[in-house]
Design goal:
Largest sheet: 8 strands, antiparallel
Shape: globular
Structural class: alpha+beta
Order of helices and strands: EHHEEEEEEEH
Oligomer: single chain
Number of helices: 3
Mean pLDDT: 90
Distance between the termini: 50 Å
């Protein structure tokens, strides 16, 4: 009743070998570093799938640091990530890499030069933070996807 649940999809078309795109998406630190507000990344000493991430963001014009925990799980065609972001906010991310062949998208073999990377994120939290969380998430993850495409297309 006092919570929200919103699914956001971000897509990037990239001219890159499938294997290179998949390896980048499946490397948590590489993905995290593409977020423009990240200031610190600490991998857990006891669980290599878990990272504590610190962002520097602006709330009502006041710069603040926000830390959260992200747990990554590799899957054959990408990576899944669960984020506990504080204030009751959680995110389930599913990053997938597909080969683009005409209008079809399929799991790749490494031979294609054209890929589609999709992030599907389901954000849940307290309705009081919705007006800040959702626009901020969209903006940052649009930037993250653009940075990922740029990184993969750099020669």
């Amino acid at each position: 009743m006092f919570t929200f649940c919103k699914t956001i999809t971000t897509t990037g078309n990239v001219r890159s070998q499938y294997d290179k795109a998949l390896a980048t998406v499946q490397t948590p630190r590489a993905l995290i570093e593409l977020n423009p507000v990240v200031t610190s990344i600490q991998q857990s000493a006891t669980d290599s799938s878990m990272y504590t991430v610190t962002d520097s963001i602006s709330v009502l014009g006041i710069p603040i640091s926000v830390s959260y925990v992200a747990r990554f799980t590799k899957v054959p065609d990408g990576i899944d990530c669960h984020v506990d972001a504080g204030l009751g906010t959680q995110v389930e991310n599913h990053w997938r890499v597909r080969i683009k062949s005409g209008e079809l998208e399929e799991v790749g073999t490494g031979e294609s030069e054209e890929c589609v990377i999709t992030e599907t994120a389901t954000v849940t939290g307290l309705f009081l933070v919705y007006p800040f969380v959702i626009p901020t998430f969209r903006s940052l993850h649009d930037s993250l996807m653009k940075n990922l495409v740029r990184k993969l297309e750099d020669k």
